[in-house]
């Protein structure tokens, strides 16, 4: 099979066969297909798209390019959750213990943050001693014992995706729905879960800025899951402002623990319960969404979910004293207040700019080799719809510098104000099954 014929076929708008897609993925992963031919095919896909079946085949080919994790020795129906990335998104720390508290095993592979989006693993490492590296057997044993484990992805999960993503990044082919969907789902499928709940973010702090784009991506991923034998549900949720009030690492862990202790942080609590309820139904522990939501809400309020989180931290070597006494978590030297310069109401917050401001403080990475400062971050004091007076604090920067000018300026640029009342943003737009 000649690669030039595969490129020509896709360039002309025809669907590729399973054999042609596997030829491409296997050849590029092993190095027999050069970058210039792979780039040409990616650009053809970018312009011509892929059918539902093509996208599913591409995803499976990327799964088959490396190792897969065998979770068959874990008792019960394994459900995973994946977020497409946002600012202040710490739902894993609430959703995992919640779902585990009703007996559903959660075996989660997570990643690190880059750019304006935070990473689950970086946040967990705010807890002294917490380790995210474990053998497959340790991972399986922990899920059987605690019902919850969160670990770093192994180096050889879907290696084709890693190589193709690097090429897409430098050939302006990242923004292709089939390629994005295949990239996300290949790693999820290789991680071994029986069912998957996707939190697809939409808005200023999300990869997909519009609801239409987010819905297209959500549908594509749900279709991939169905075509490859995994029940998949996607929730499209708002990322036009950070989720909750904390952005960073240790401070996000703190906020998640506060929700697990019963604090009513509205958007964070609501989205966590929504995701957890769908995971519980997919696991067939409960057949009715409303019943699942009520049971999970009860375990959030009675402390059962919090106890699961404590057990999870202990199992992965973390210092549970930091969870019981949140003031022991890493903190910054200075608390720098950013104040409103006008009266009115908060009309918009550019979530991406807030994420970048946190990155400037050291809470995130500009490049993959940057070190994380777990103690720095941002606390929002005002969110969309809140009234504001001149001189009132809108944001607190937790910084190791006494005057972090770049972050201050970025926060000021992120906030917009109006004299009129503003309705709060919709949190959950759609559920796609």
Automatic annotation (TrEMBL):
<dbReference type="InterPro" id="IPR017872">
    <property type="entry name" value="Pyrmidine_PPase_CS"/>
</dbReference>
<dbReference type="GO" id="GO:0009032">
    <property type="term" value="F:thymidine phosphorylase activity"/>
</dbReference>
<dbReference type="InterPro" id="IPR036566">
    <property type="entry name" value="PYNP-like_C_sf"/>
</dbReference>
<dbReference type="InterPro" id="IPR018090">
    <property type="entry name" value="Pyrmidine_PPas_bac/euk"/>
</dbReference>
<keyword id="KW-0328">Glycosyltransferase</keyword>
<keyword id="KW-0808">Transferase</keyword>
<dbReference type="GO" id="GO:0006213">
    <property type="term" value="P:pyrimidine nucleoside metabolic process"/>
</dbReference>
<dbReference type="InterPro" id="IPR000312">
    <property type="entry name" value="Glycosyl_Trfase_fam3"/>
</dbReference>
<comment type="similarity">
    <text>Belongs to the thymidine/pyrimidine-nucleoside phosphorylase family.</text>
</comment>
<keyword id="KW-0630">Potassium</keyword>
<comment type="function">
    <text>Catalyzes phosphorolysis of the pyrimidine nucleosides uridine, thymidine and 2'-deoxyuridine with the formation of the corresponding pyrimidine base and ribose-1-phosphate.</text>
</comment>
<dbReference type="InterPro" id="IPR017459">
    <property type="entry name" value="Glycosyl_Trfase_fam3_N_dom"/>
</dbReference>
<feature type="domain" description="Pyrimidine nucleoside phosphorylase C-terminal">
    <location>
        <begin position="345"/>
        <end position="418"/>
    </location>
</feature>
<dbReference type="InterPro" id="IPR013102">
    <property type="entry name" value="PYNP_C"/>
</dbReference>
<dbReference type="Pfam" id="PF07831">
    <property type="entry name" value="PYNP_C"/>
</dbReference>
<dbReference type="GO" id="GO:0006206">
    <property type="term" value="P:pyrimidine nucleobase metabolic process"/>
</dbReference>
<comment type="subunit">
    <text>Homodimer.</text>
</comment>
<dbReference type="GO" id="GO:0005829">
    <property type="term" value="C:cytosol"/>
</dbReference>
<dbReference type="GO" id="GO:0004645">
    <property type="term" value="F:1,4-alpha-oligoglucan phosphorylase activity"/>
</dbReference>
<protein>
    <recommendedName>
        <fullName>Pyrimidine-nucleoside phosphorylase</fullName>
        <ecNumber>2.4.2.2</ecNumber>
    </recommendedName>
</protein>
<dbReference type="InterPro" id="IPR036320">
    <property type="entry name" value="Glycosyl_Trfase_fam3_N_dom_sf"/>
</dbReference>
<dbReference type="InterPro" id="IPR000053">
    <property type="entry name" value="Thymidine/pyrmidine_PPase"/>
</dbReference>
<dbReference type="Pfam" id="PF00591">
    <property type="entry name" value="Glycos_transf_3"/>
</dbReference>
<dbReference type="InterPro" id="IPR035902">
    <property type="entry name" value="Nuc_phospho_transferase"/>
</dbReference>
<dbReference type="GO" id="GO:0046872">
    <property type="term" value="F:metal ion binding"/>
</dbReference>
<dbReference type="Pfam" id="PF02885">
    <property type="entry name" value="Glycos_trans_3N"/>
</dbReference>
<keyword id="KW-0479">Metal-binding</keyword>
């Amino acid at each position: 099979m000649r690669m030039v014929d595969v490129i020509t076929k896709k360039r002309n708008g025809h669907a590729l066969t399973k054999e042609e897609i596997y030829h491409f993925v296997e050849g590029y992963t092993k190095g027999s297909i050069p970058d210039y031919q792979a780039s040409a095919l990616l650009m053809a896909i970018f312009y011509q798209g892929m059918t539902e079946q093509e996208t599913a085949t591409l995803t499976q080919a990327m799964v088959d390019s490396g190792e897969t994790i065998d979770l068959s020795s874990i008792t019960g129906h394994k459900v995973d959750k994946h977020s497409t990335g946002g600012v202040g998104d710490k739902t894993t720390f609430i959703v995992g213990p919640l779902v585990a508290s009703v007996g559903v095993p959660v075996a989660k592979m997570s990643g690190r943050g880059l750019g304006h989006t935070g990473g689950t693993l970086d946040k967990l490492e705010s807890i002294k001693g917490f380790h995210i590296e474990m053998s497959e057997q340790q991972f399986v044993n922990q899920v059987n014992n605690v019902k919850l484990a969160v670990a770093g992805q192994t180096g050889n999960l879907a290696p084709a995706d890693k190589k193709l993503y690097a090429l897409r990044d430098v050939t302006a082919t990242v923004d292709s729905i089939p390629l994005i969907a295949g990239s996300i789902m290949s790693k999820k499928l290789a991680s071994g879960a029986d069912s998957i709940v996707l939190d697809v973010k939409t808005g200023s702090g999300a990869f997909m800025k519009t609801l239409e784009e987010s819905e297209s991506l959500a549908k594509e991923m749900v279709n991939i899951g169905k075509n490859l034998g995994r029940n998949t549900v996607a929730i499209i949720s708002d990322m036009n402002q950070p989720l909750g009030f904390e952005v960073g690492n240790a401070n996000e862990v703190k906020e998640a623990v506060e929700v697990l202790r019963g604090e009513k942080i509205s958007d964070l609590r609501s989205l966590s319960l929504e995701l957890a309820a769908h995971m519980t139904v997919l696991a067939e522990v409960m057949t009715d969404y409303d019943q699942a939501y009520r049971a999970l809400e009860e375990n959030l309020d009675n402390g059962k979910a919090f106890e699961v989180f404590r057990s999870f931290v202990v199992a992965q070597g973390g210092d549970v004293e930091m969870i019981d006494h949140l003031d022991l978590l890493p903190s910054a030297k200075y608390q720098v207040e950013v104040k409103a310069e006008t009266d009115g109401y908060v009309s918009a917050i550019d979530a991406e700019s807030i994420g970048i401001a946190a990155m400037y403080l050291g809470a995130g990475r500009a490049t993959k080799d940057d070190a994380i400062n777990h103690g720095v971050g941002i606390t929002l004091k005002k969110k969309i719809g809140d009234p504001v007076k001149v001189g009132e604090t809108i944001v607190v920067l937790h910084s190791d510098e006494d005057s972090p000018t770049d972050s201050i300026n970025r926060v000021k640029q992120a906030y917009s104000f109006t004299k009129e009342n503003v309705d709060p943003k919709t949190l959950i737009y759609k559920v796609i099954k």
